[in-house]
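Task: encode each sequence below as structure tokens.

Item 1
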Amino acid sequence: MRIICVGGGPAGLYFAISAKLRDRNHRITVVERNPAGVTYGWGVTFSDTLLDSVYRNDQVSARRINQHPASWDNQEVQVHGRSAHLGGYGYAVGRKLLLDILARRAVELGVDIQFEREIEDLSGFADAELIVACDGANSRVRELYSQYFRTDADVGRNKYIWLGTHRIFDSFVFAFEETIAGWIWCYAYRFNSDTTTFIVECSPETWQGLGFDVLGPDESCYLLEDIFKRHLDGYSLINPVRDLGKMPWLNFTRITNTSWYHGNVVLMGDAAHTTHFSIGSGTTLAMQDAVALADKLDQHQNVQAALRAYQAQRRTALLTAQGAARNSTRWFENVTHYIDDELTQFAYSLWQRRGRSPLWRYQLHLATQIAALRKLRCSLSATRRELRARRRVKPAG
């Protein structure tokens, strides 16, 4: 089958890998607008669930990814310099490193990757039996057929920005600071030995009240460094587009589509759906899309039947994540409703933002605030993580 993937992010590259593993006769081209090795973004988070899936699908990619992840064994909520703990663990890897790993693997399998190729329309792909639109939330391909996909773009209220820092955090940190214009907060997690993702979010009133609507990139970074100085410990913030004279503040846009395919064009990853960054599932969902589409193409000889099955499976699989993302978005847009609660209760509210939890979970949360019990919990989590890691690599022999 002749397949074109428009977009060389995790979704497009991992689909190309997955499809090739199922049928080496597929002729797959990945078209990417950026130069090789150039990407925007810091670290991407993932869980044991994604690692399990990647190991089942392609152990070569999985082992390369698993050689480099940063990890944390606690989540910490900080308000006015005081801390509460949420427990839990996770992983992150640099987006550039992840893309390099996936691109290398795709080329090894015979995928043709064409960098610096801008796609205005699909007229150049008349010989393609399948075109996979994985070109992000602002997908150009999706817009070409907007009347068929019927996209809904729900723009969030809060302002946010992705920055970085060389200050290394041992935990995944949510830090809230009160300013003269209102509350502002960050999400901080390291993704390699010397770099941390530092996402800042606030209400539009706070954003404007602090002057970010008029400040230049350097002045904006200086102000944010001052606001979060107790967390940065003297380190600077890194603006990835400083040289372009921009401060890339955004409003999160939740993308949904009535249909995920039209003719031989199918949506994948952020082109099909987005989930708020506060639940850290974007890359996981995109790579799961990739595996699902490769599976359906392998299971169905008819492309249309494969696309119908792919859409049905992924819509169902996404329901929980999309619900959690909507709840999380609303919680952060209404953070002032909770911020005056006692710190332990506020932290538990943050943990619960995805949805309700069993009664025993609150008792575990209270126990986690005690240093000795927190250490015990971390030890048990580390043991569970190690056992899971051994199970996932065991089939490799």
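Item 2
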Amino acid sequence: MELVIFSLLNGLVYGLLLFMLSSGLTLIFSMMGVLNFAHASVFMLGAYFSYQVGRWIGFWPALALAPALCGVAGALTERYGLRTVHRHGHVSELLFTFGLAFLIEEFVIMAWGRNPIENRVPDLLDFPLFTLYTTSFPAYKAFMMVISAGMFAFLYWVLRRTRTGLIIQAALTHPNMAAALGHNVPRVFMLVFAAGSALAGLAGVIGGFALLTAPNMANALGPIVFVVVVVGGLGSLSGALLASLLIGIVQTFSVALDISLLDAARGVGLDIGRQNPLYEVWSVKIAQVAPMIPYFLLVLMLIVRPKGLMGTRET
């Protein structure tokens, strides 16, 4: 029972962290149609910014300043880079963001080195929230869950219930009409890209303490984020949340299961010997294939439902 409860809690924490990272990417794609390959690199940049600002003035100011710095960087990227290549089509946009990801990684290595940095949880949140059986649940993980849930509620409210959200959606679907009504459509796109980058930066601030803050953290999480976005449905914020929780919980439980199909078969009375041609496959532990499960879900989703769980665009 202890394993089930804490695997579920850790799966929720991991899933909500994936949502924090994928929400900015979903926002940028749903409003601009741009798949930003540098998004995970901005997440990494947020983690390093929070570390540096936290050393100077503390964690709580860094919680606001690091995402703001990432948002400014995103606005400058859209205004002076992405907007220029946009006229050449989506392939040029993908190549631009792909190259930008490498530039950000090299910048991080030049500024902070190749070794992981010591990013400690702030003292105010460094205590066990509760203890069940023999395992404690850290307060910082609960803080991560609250921030993630608040982010979803805020984004949903802005996009569905405010005038700003209506203007953003109008600028996407009917840019000429929005411009005729006096709205600066290029500026709207720049602000959307900046907001998506700021969300990635906020995820970096929060996730930098839960994960190892190192120059390869973007490469570790980047592919999973695209899996989340595709499985949830390109452009769907609710789909990103659902897919994040699904992948987070499934992968966490998979890591905790140190059993194989061979063990399960023996549990129901089936005896599979070494002479069986699939014996090696049956003997692989579920924990060993846990990293493959999100990609299996991606392939399955593309076959069964290319639009994703709640998407409106074809992938």
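Check on item 2: The mean pLDDT is 84. The chain has one domain: 2-304.
End of task.
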